[in-house]
Amino acid sequence: MTFYADRPEWKDITPIPLPYSENEPVVQIMYSDRFKDVYSYMAAIMQKKEYSERALNLTTDAIECNAANYTVWHYRREILRHLQLDLQDEMKFTESVIDDQPKNYQVWHHRRCIIEMTGDPSQELDLTEYTLSSDAKNYHAWDHRQWVLSQYKIWDKELEYIDDLLSKDLRNNSAWNHRYFVIENSQGWSKETISKELEYAGAYIKKAPNNESSWNYARGIIKKNKMQYSDFPSFKELCVGMNESHIPSPFLLSTLADINVEEGNKTAASNIFEQLKDLDSIREKYWTFKQDQLQVGS
After folding, report:
1. Taking a C-beta distance cutoff of 8 angstroms, is the pair 230, 245 a contact?
2. 167/150 Cα distance (integer angstroms)
3. 157 flagged as catalytic
4. What one-character-per-residue DSSP string does 237-268 give?
5. Cβ distance 116 to 148 under 8 Å?
6. Mutual orientation of helices 191-207 and 212-224 as an angle, nearest 10°?
7. pLDDT in tens, the chain (298 residues)
C-alpha cells in the first residue's frame, strides 16, 4: 500500500503527526508506520473539516487500522451525510467489518445510525441471525436485534426464531432472555400468556431438570408479574410430580421451597433448604441464609 505521504493527490494536506499531545508520553505506543501515516492524515482532515470522497476512503483505511476508534466512525457518518451517498454500499461495508469483528461495539453503533438514516431495517434480522449462528451469546448482535424489533415493531416471526434456537440448544440462556423481551414488548403478560409460557418452559424443564435457564424463565415471569404459584396449579403439579420421582435438581427444590413459603409451610420449606445444603453444597451458606430468613419472617 502506498503511504498517503507519497500520494500526489494528498500533497495539499499537511499531516499532524502522532502523538497529538505536546506532552511526551510516559510509555510510547509502538504504532506501525502505516498506522502513523493514516492517522496523521486523519487528524489533518478532521481539523480541516473536509467531507469528501477521499476523506471517506481515508476513514476506511483508518478503520482497517483500528476499527474501535469511535471518532473515526463518527466522522465517517458526517461525511456520508454531507455527500448524501447511496448507503447500500455503507451497509455492505459494515457487514464486512462485523463479519471480521463481530464483537466490536463501534461498528454495531454505526450500523444502527445508518439504519436510522435509511429507515430500512429489512436486512437486520438476517444479519443478526447470521452473527448469532456462530456465537449465540454475542451481546452486540442481541442488542442490535432487540433495538430493531422494538424500533420498527417487526415481532411477527420472532417467537418462531426463538423456538428454533431453543430446539437446537435448550440451555441457550440468551434465547430465553430474548423470549422474555419479545413477549414483554409485543403482547404483554396476561395470565393466559403466563400460563402458556409456563407450559412451554415446563416442557423444557422435563427434558433437562438441571438446566437453570428454563427454571429462571418460569420463575421469573411469575415473580416479575407479581403472581403466585397458586395461580398456576399445572406448574405446581409439574414440580410436585418431578419431586415425587426423586429427580435431583437444586432448581426444582428451590422452586418447591418458594411454593411452600408462599403457602405458609415454613417447616416444609426449611426441610427443603436442608436438602439443598447437601445437593447444592457449593451454596450451602446461601441455603442456610434462606433457612434463617424463615425464622426472621415468622
Report:
1. no
2. 24
3. no
4. HHHHHHHHTT---HHHHHHHHHHHHHTT-HHH
5. no
6. 160
7. 799 999 999 999 999 988 766 677 777 788 899 999 999 999 999 999 999 999 999 999 999 999 999 999 999 999 999 999 999 999 999 999 999 999 999 999 999 999 999 999 999 999 999 999 999 999 999 999 999 999 999 999 999 999 999 999 999 999 999 999 999 999 999 999 999 999 999 999 999 999 999 999 999 999 999 999 999 999 999 999 999 999 999 999 999 999 999 999 999 999 999 999 999 999 999 999 999 999 865 5
DSSP 3: -
- Catalytic one of 48, 92, 103, 153: 103
Answer for the pair 170, 214: CB distance below 8 angstroms, yes or no.
Answer: yes
- Report the greatest alpha carbon distance in the chain: 86
- Do 118 and 150 contact (CB within 8 A), yes or no? no
Residue type, 50: E
Give the span between the Cα atoms of 145 and 134, in whole angstroms.
15
C-alpha cell at 44: 489533518
